[in-house]
Amino acid sequence: MASENSDGQSLRKGRLGVAGIVFFVVAASAPLVGMTGAVPVAMLAGNLTGTPGTYLAVGLALLLFSVGYAAMSNKVTNAGAFFAYVGKAFGPKAGVASAFASIVGYITIQLAIYGFFGGLMAGQMAAYGLNAPWYVWTLVAWALVTGLSLLSVDVGAKVLGTLMIAEVLSLLVLAVTILSNGGPDGGVNLAASFAPENILLGGITGGAGIAIAFAFASFIGFEATAIYGEESINPKKTVAKATYWAIGIITALFSIVSLAMVTGMGVATLPDKIVEYSSVDGVPLANPAGVLFALSDTYVGNWLTQIMGWLVVSSLFAGLLAFQNATSRYFFALGRSGVLSKGFAKTNPSGAPQAGVILTSVLAAAVIVFFVVANLDPILNLFFWMSSITAIAIFLVEIFVSLAVVVYFMRAGGENVWKSKIAPIASALLLTFGLYLIMSRFNLLAGTASEGVDPSLAESAWALSPLGWGLVLSPFIAALIGYVVASMRNVHHSKMVDDVLS
């Protein structure tokens, strides 16, 4: 089926509705992976029973970001959303700088998921007698993701939709069962999870800050809604609706399920239970997924645990596909702007940005091979290092987008003061605060603390190894490189800039 546009330089329009975009975005946030990986760590190293309230608070903060983001999507429709929004306000060079930082964010999160996928599959398949190194399973996923992305985005949406529905249903079954049972306390203690003093337990520079950092990181991917604007049925309305729905679903899911986890383990016994369920050879949180699975065994049955074990795998795969699509569309936008070669601005007969898909896959394969040759661990190294870089990259760009919304509407007008000033300014401040927390607690998030430093302690903030500092600064370096490249390519004189930034 040919593309709608004979020049092959536009993504096919009218392929995605609100539901299709929401599938991509919620799948990218990988809620089941977050529940098995981030939430137990946020609880034990963070603010304990206050973690559900932390996720709710972070979700509300990101809704503020979405107000201006959605308003901007009504004015600017582009496959490289952040690139276009920042470029409209601060000029094409700044737009390209933000695009480079965004690409770092999406590439690193996909690499992180490849590592987690390979490590998890190697363990699960070994139980069935299929013993293969982690990279074998990773490369199988790599081939499937590349193929589906080249076929077209609507095929991917169907796959993601099916996987996401099963994933969400499994979490809701567990949550409803636990909350109905009441756990060892005999009921649901809402105050323990949502009272402000419990959310702020340990202080912003201590436990509460750690939990907030993990919660912010769990939302990575929601901002991808605008990337699919060109392919949506009605870009002026679809993107805004999809953004609100995506954040609402992610917030509700994390808040409700984490509340069920607190209830299931009991308020008083929560720390002991997390240690018991997640320890391997006496090391707490060595297997954080064990917390959710133990609760599933206790309150529902091993049958759900088995299903969830495989849904974690499918959740990871869904995330891989979502970020492959997002990254390839950024390359498409950069090709159309003249930053990359014109070949990146073309789509294949299925309407997919073929060169962008191939480049994304080549970069992923190169890094995977490097980690294999260097004999680095797929989870302890590839997953934790890359996912932590992603958190910094995306929030850095979201701050600039919030500021870009203010600047754009000051010039163009057309929106009320809430959407054009109050909400985006508030979101910029909150996101800056979140970025500070993520960077200051990077040694805990990525496991890159200075030698002899306990990263879980409040006084250990910013105590990073040289590798840690290199990883922390990589999104900023990428943005600087993007600005220099844009200057060298004279992007501000490109005849394609108006097409991209309109």
* Overall CATH architecture: Up-down Bundle
What Rg do the Cα atoms give?
A: 22 Å
Task: Write down the secondary-structure element order.
Answer: HHHHHHHHHHHHHHHHHHHH
Shape descriptor: globular
What is the subunit arrangement here?
single chain
Entry keywords:
502 residues; mainly alpha; Amino acid/polyamine transporter I; 20 helices; globular; disordered N terminus
What's this model, at a glance?
This protein has 502 residues and is an all-alpha fold.
Can you walk me through this structure?
With 502 residues, this protein is mostly helical. The protein has one domain (18-500): Amino acid/polyamine transporter I (Up-down Bundle), CATH 1.20.1740.10. 72% of the residues lie in helices and 0% in strands. The chain is globular and about 60 Å long. It is a multi-pass membrane protein. InterPro entries: AA/rel_permease1 (IPR002293), APC_superfamily (IPR050367). Keywords: Cell membrane, Membrane, Transmembrane, Transmembrane helix.
Question: What is the element layout, followed by pairings?
Answer:
Blueprint: H1 18-29, H2 31-47, H3 51-73, H4 81-90, H5 92-126, H6 134-151, H7 153-181, H8 190-194, H9 196-199, H10 207-218, H11 235-265, H12 270-278, H13 289-299, H14 302-337, H15 354-373, H16 378-412, H17 417-440, H18 442-446, H19 466-488, H20 497-500
